[in-house]
Write a structure and sequence with these properties.
With 114 residues, the protein is mainly β. 0% of the residues lie in helices and 54% in strands. It has strands at 3-7, 11-12, 18-25, 33-39, 46-51, 57-59, 67-72, 77-82, 91-99, 101-104, 108-112. A hairpin with a 4-residue loop joins β7 (67-72) and β8. The radius of gyration is 13 Å and the shape is globular.
Length: 114
Amino acid sequence: QVQLVESGGDLVQPGGSLRLSCAASGRAFSIYTMGWYRRAPGKQRELVAFITSEYKTNYTDSVKGRFTISRDNAKNTVNLQMNNLKPEDTAVYYCSARYFAAYWGQGTQVTVSS
């Protein structure tokens, strides 16, 4: 079983940057595909980005070129660097870990507003 704790959410102006972090506890972190999802008010949860155990990455079209996902297996962490933030990026961001089963963090709020 994996426990996930997100951090780094904040209020930021359009065009600004944030770095979200997710700390994982449990065994064998390196085998998990790690992902970031978000849920905006009134919308369904969507996949933002993921990184596999082999460090392959994928991004939803709306964040390509602005967001970067990375992982540090030695520290059991996965990060999401978010640049050039837009108001439509406002959402609760969730970290996930998948290896057959899926595990979720509690979420961290990102608000992009002037």
